[in-house]
Amino acid sequence: MIKYIIRRLLSAIPVLAGVLLVTFALARMIPGDPCTAMLGEKATPDICARFNREKGLDQPIPVQFGIYALDVLRGDLGESIRFRRPIMQILVERLPVTIELGLTALAIATLIGVPAGLLAAIRRNSAVDVGTMVGANIGVSMPVFWLGLMLAYVFALLLRDTPFALPPSGRLPAGMDATPFFEVYNWNIEPKTRLYRLLEFFANLYIFNAIITFNWELLGATIKHLILPAVALATIPMAIIARMTRSSMLEVLGRDYVRTARAKGLSDHVVILSHAFRNALLPVVTIVGLQLGTVFGGAVLTETIFNLAGVGRILFEAITARDYPIIQGVTLAVAFTYVMVNLLVDLSYALLDPRIRLN
Amino acid sequence: MAVDVETVAISLPRRTAASPWRQALRRFSRQRSAIAGLLIIGTMILVAIFAPLIAPYDPEQVLLGIEDVGKRAPPCVHLLGCDEMQSQHIMGVDGNFRDQFSRVVYGTRVSLFIGFITVAVAMLAGVLLGAVAGYLGGWVEDVIMRILDVQLAFPFLLLAIAIVSVLGPGLMNAMLGIAIVTIPQYARVIRAGILATKEEEYAAAARAIGSSHPRILFRHILPNAISPLIVQGTLGIGIAILDVAALSFLGLGAQPPTPEWGSMLSSERNQVFSAPHLVFFPGMAIMLAVLGFNLLGDGLRDALDPRLKQ
Questions:
Q1: How close is the nearest chain A Cα to the Cα of B158, in Å?
Q2: Alpha-carbon gap: A359 to the closest alpha carbon of chain B (Å)
Q3: Residue A322 in domain
Q4: Which residues from chain A sit within 8 angstroms of residue B146, using beta carbons?
């Protein structure tokens, strides 16, 4: 198993290097020279010469790539043109919103998609099966941005005076603040230090913050604001997960050992859950990991629609403002996370599948 | 005598089982969802061809001053009791006083164009790369497959966004962006097909009689790897329509006044509470088109490749 883990870890290195190369190349493909793109109208030849020297842009391309790679390894993703602030800082501030939204969406997708697919496979060709598959087909065809807007219209306008009303934008109602847990408990932390930023990061995960401060009102409000964007974001992954669970389950249910288990007289319950489902789980776990990509892409659309100040929203604003360093930084950060999560998924195989563990 | 031999030669295959294509057709027509997909796509193609006959107005014509229309007026259908005195706009009027229905109808042209061209470009590049990788093997294969692996490390839409923001916004660049990020899918499909058929006896036979590499590849190997490609391509058209619409929604794709569904939706998204019809109809059109290609693709997979059928 150790060998498997090491081999898998090593295989991620060339991919990560490739990812770096792509984001580096993207920055070099921007029309016009980087100096004009960064400094805009202030870019006189004199200033540009100094700028190029400072950023190493007068060096040969391979050296430039080396500088870029070292910067990234040190956690320096460059500076935003619009905010004049390090991109890493902006990411750390905005990431909690996207993480909270993405994980909620993925949880909804898995918690509904897996049982739906399971049920469809067990009751194959029944009304449940047909309904699930029709729903899944419509689900994968759904434009996330449209669904988000329609959900907002229905739940924030049509149902506004009913108990089902849900807010269409922001993270909290006006006038409500999420006091960070370290302030609630009166920890004396020097602002602007690393520790402070780290704690701030966790405090910005409102659900987490609300739970550890026992602030149920805050928790309720956070969840209420999360439901619409998370459901919109969850639709496509949910449909894909349901389809995958169903087909993986059907395949396993047709195997000999499942028939043997039934022949032994085991109850349906035991056969399905402990014999079939466990073996059908592997492709499902893979697909859940891959859905993270869909969720990241969809977050750009959902955060824009629901006015959530996350990484997706900042990317959208950067596109409009032509803030290239942010686009580059966000792309790199997300690709890194994506590779890492799929690495974890692969490693989790070892836990799920003894054949991999023992080999 | 010669005539007899010929008759036998021709009539023999007829007595054996139906041809694989006919079997596939039979399998296809047995699936209700595949037929539904075919109907949706067929209707859309007809709508696209006859758009000028179906659409009551020019999609870019501003009706202010020509007719008595309200800005973002809700749908008015005479059959459903809308005042006969008012001009009929069955999907309402948009923020620029244009007939929404005509724009949705013409949007079919734009979206089908987007779907087919994007997939054609991605497929061409993917097939070339995948075929070269699978056929030649060795370091060429390693290099190509590693590059494609790196591409798959990026979430799909995000890489497209990055590429298009570098190339500059516009419909063609958006299509190119989506084409680039979908290349690996086609390359992988074709490479898998080639790896499976490369060692078959007919390929070896072709090599033995001295056929050239391109000839072996294009005449003997590729045709046997084509059905997964057809399936992937059909599903890919739906994906291309959906993602180019998403790019347009973000302002990176089609620019106004092009009647593209994603950009129509984008320009009215802040009015969703006051004029939901301007968001609802273009979105429905996107969903229907994507659904159609998805159903058709799934149906084709089951029909062309029975091994994959559950």
A1: 5
A2: 25
A3: no
A4: 14, 18
Q: Which CATH number fits domain B107-308: 3.40.50.1820, 3.40.50.1100, 3.40.50.300, 1.10.3720.10?
A: 1.10.3720.10
Any idea of the CA torsion for A238, A242, A245, A249, to the nearest 10 degrees? 170
CB–CB contact A21 B150 (8 Å): yes
Residues in chain A with CB shorter than 8 Å from the CB of B310 are 247, 250-251
Residues contacting A103, CB < 8 A, separation 6+: none
A250 contacts chain B (CB < 8 A): yes
pLDDT at res. B216: 81
Burial (0-12, 13-18, 19+ Cβ within 10 Å), B36: middle
Residue A337: is its pLDDT beyond 60?
yes
Q: Provide the domain limits for residue A162.
A: 88-178+215-278
The answer to whether residue A186 is domain-embedded is no
Structurally, how many domains does chain A consist of?
1
- What does the pLDDT read at residue B54? 93
Contacts of A167 in chain B (CB under 8 A): none
The pLDDT, as a whole number, for residue B2 is: 47
pLDDT tens readout for residues A207-243: 999 999 999 999 999 999 999 999 999 999 999 999 9
Residues 6+ apart with CB under 8 A from A252: A258, A276, A277, A279, A280
Position A323 in a domain: no
pLDDT of residue B310: 40
Instruction: Kindly indicate the confidence band of residue B199, based on its pLDDT and cuts at 50, 70 and 90.
Output: confident
Q: Considering the domain boundaries, does residue A299 fall inside one?
A: no
ipTM confidence: 0.88
Indicate the domain borders of chain B. Answer: 107-308
A10–chain B Cβ distance below 8 A for any pair:
no
CA angle A223, A229, A233 (to 5 degrees): 125
Contact A300 B149 (CB under 8 A): no
Report the mean per-residue pLDDT for chain B.
86
Across the range B127-147, mean pLDDT stands at 89
Backbone phi, then psi, for B274, in 5-degree steps? -95, -30
| Amino acid letter, residue A279 | N
How far does the CA of residue B137 sit from the closest CA of chain A (Å)?
Answer: 20
Yes or no, beta carbons of A156 and B273 under 8 Å apart? yes
